[in-house]
Amino acid sequence: MYKARIRLAYRIVIDNTSIITWDKYVWEDTFKEYLMQNQQFNSKENPKNTFRELLAENEKASQLHYLVGIVASGYVAQLKGNFHRVKDVLGNNYLPFTNYQLDIVNSDITDELKHKIGITFYSPLLTLMDIIEGCYLISKNCEDSNGLETLMFPVQPQLSICYYQKNTGNNDFKNENSESN
Question: Does residue 124 contact residue 98 with C-beta atoms inside 8 Å?
């Protein structure tokens, strides 16, 4: 018997100190895109240098999260649905993800070193069997069956349950695997 259907979220923050090559490319390209896209929200008469200042001045600038996030889609596609920084306890399987969301933590058009973004990766719907010794015992299978193949992912910083539906004992989970978060 399982406890719930869940969706996991894992967040990374990328800035100028990131050392992973993938992160560096994403950081560079998102900054370039930010410079281009911010022009449509920034005032020519009284330009704002930082993203936070721009948001305070023009609430439509919140669209920059999405617009800048588009440039990261090619890099995210390279991961082929598995986030390799989150391994199961055996080191054999990686956190599966079906979508992501990029947000601008801050940026400054006059200083690229202040550019900082966050990317949150969302798993597909998973079956939570239990939490054992600090690990999520989950299955990728969400159909009711007599037995399930399981994986164990350690509970860790930046990994969170972002969707939880308690098992009520009936079959109300059958068609939810395609549900978006």
Answer: yes
Task: Say how far apart CA 111 and CA 109 lie, in whole Å.
Answer: 6
pTM here is 0.87
> In Å, how far from its chain's centre is CA 12?
7
- β pairing state of 4-14 and 116-122: antiparallel
Q: What backbone torsions phi and psi does residue 52 show, to the nearest 5 degrees?
A: -65, -40
pLDDT digits (tens, 9 = 90+) for 57-83: 999 999 999 999 999 999 999 999 999
138's enclosing H/E stretch is: strand 135-139
Per-residue tokens: 45:
């008469």
Greatest extent of the chain over all pairs of C-alpha atoms, in Å: 67
Residue 44: alpha-carbon gap to chain centroid: 34
